[in-house]
Predict the structure of Nucleosome assembly protein 1-like 1.
Amino acid sequence: MPANGDLSQLLQMDSDPCGEFLKELPKDIKRRVCALKKLQLQSLEVESEFYQRVHQLEKEFESKFNKLYDLRRKVVTGEKEPTDEEANIPLLHDATPEELAALDETAPETSGEKGVPNFWSHVFENCETISDMIQEHDKDILKYLIDVTTTVETSPEEGFSLAFHFTANPYFKNSVLTKRYFLQMKPEEDNPFEFDGPSVIRTTGDQIQWEDNKDVTKKVIKKKSKKGANAGKFLTKTVKADSFFNFFDPPVCDHDHQNEDDDDDLEEHELLRADFALGQLLRDIVVPRAVLLYTGEQTEDDYLDDGGDFEDDDDMEDEDDD
């Protein structure tokens, strides 16, 4: 006799249209469907191999991108002044000559400053997902951010890292804050059909060495005690405060012992997914397209739109009508 759990599953299958359909299939067809599923597993292995090869290719091209990003950093910080030839494209790519002239009408000839002040903080402000994380107390700190770089990690584990470079500042001692993402590149043995490309299994961030009384990720609150010897007295307690810099204190999720029925595990898993999505946004959009976010010519939605470069159906229909 089947165990209670197995019996419950069988009963559920009886009421499941999918289960009803499979029950009615002749055994020889079921056998062929099983063969198709095995082919699907083999296809997933090829897909996994594809993603691993892409990861290796990203590492191969990393140095070429970094040469350009290093020049970007030098211009941003004022270490390099671009030549006329290096700056001979329009400030806004789709603007008319009249619109470009209007942009210069009231602009002073020189700023008296080096580089592009507050470049990265302005990029972040123009990226809605990141902007939503930034609190008022973060803004002065982010003015010291001079570069964001990425590294493809291949050993000892596959993944990528994001490095935030800061000039000396009165808030913390670190010159670089690094966030690392570790990826699962292959289907899981116990649930292979859920494979949908690389997924994050864990992430770590550098510990910020805050100067005294400068930690914006914590706040002290007063709370009136209701019990014990201190009943009626106000006690102080340090709690977590909203801040962009919580990005470096990522959620911890035990990937090997997750229980989908456990609300806490589910919440941690969702937090991890959201954190990974933010890491991908920074790596795939913000870092490589920073200047277009700075000018406001493009937004994260331009890249995240499911429609990609294709026109939507309504536009296509309108053109057909013409």
Summary: The chain is about 45% helix and 15% strand.
